[in-house]
Amino acid sequence: MTSIDDLSALDLAALVASRVCHDIISPVGAITNGLEVLDEEDSEDMKEFAMDLIRKSARQASAKLQFARLAFGAAGSAGAEIDLGDAQSVASGFLANEKADLEWNVPRLLMGKNRVKLLLNLILLANQCVPRGGLIKVSMEGEASAPRFELRVTGSTTRVPAVLTDMMSGQEPERIDAHTVQPVYAMLLARDSGMNLEVVKEEDGVKITATTAE
Questions:
Q1: What CA–CA distance (Å, rounded) separates 167 from 90?
Q2: What residues does each domain of the chain span?
Q3: Which end of the chain has fewer CB within 10 Å, C or N?
Q4: What does the pLDDT look like over 98-114, one tens digit per residue?
Q5: pTM, two decimal places
Q6: Cβ contacts of 37 within 8 Å, gap of 6 or more
Q7: Count of beta carbons in the 10 Å neighbourhood of residue 52
C-alpha cells in the first residue's frame, strides 16, 4: 500500500491524468458513436438523433475539460491568483451534466490558485456525496488571504465515500489509484494551502469545510 506521503510527483501526475481521461472518455466516445451513425444511416430521424447526441456530448466534454484545466491544471504562473468568477463558471458548467444542482454564494475576487483549485476539488468531493442528485451550496467567509470554505450537500441519499472517511480519520487509503486520487489530491491542496479540511455526515446531509490554519 502506497501512503500519501510516499506518493511521488510522477505517480501523482500520472494518476490525476488518468482520472481526467476517465472523465472525458464517455462523452468523447459518444461523439464517435454519433459520427458513425451519421456515416452509416440514411434515416433523417437517425441523423437528427446523432446530431443531438454529438452536440450534447461535445458540450459535456468541453465542460469537463474546462473544469479539469482549472481544478487540476497549472493555470497561471507560480503564485498566480485566479478569479473566483471563473471558478463559478467552470463549476456551473461541470455540474450542469451531473445530478446535483449548484448554489454559489462566494464573492467574486482574486485568490491564490491553489486555494481556488482546492475549492473546485471540494465541489468534486461534494458531488460524490450525493450520488442520486441533490443540492450543493457553496459559501465562503473571510478574506481572500484567510478564507473559510463551506459546502453543504443535501439530497434524497447522502453519504461520505469510504476513502474520504478513512483520510478524515487519519488513516491511509486502502489503495491510491485513478478512482481514489482526487480526494488525495484535495487533501494535498489543503495541506499546501495551509487549510484544515473537515467532512462531517449530518442528519440532513454532508458538510465539508476548509478553514485557514491559524
A1: 27
A2: 9-212
A3: C
A4: 999 999 999 999 999 99
A5: 0.91
A6: 46, 47, 49, 50, 53
A7: 11
Partnered with residue 85 across adjacent β-strands are: none
- Cβ(67)–Cβ(94) below 8 Å: yes
Rounded to the nearest angstrom, the gap between the alpha carbon of residue 104 and the centroid of all alpha carbons in its chain is 15
Q: At residue 83, what are phi and psi to the nearest 5 degrees?
A: -70, 125
Task: Point out which residues pair with 195 in neighbouring strands.
Answer: 212
φ, ψ (nearest 5 deg) of residue 43: -65, 130
The three cell numbers of residue 124 are 468534486
Residue 139 CA to residue 123 CA, distance in Å, equals 11
Q: With a cut of 70, which residues of the chain have pLDDT below it?
A: 1-2, 75-79
CATH 3.90.1310.10 fits 9-212, yes or no: no
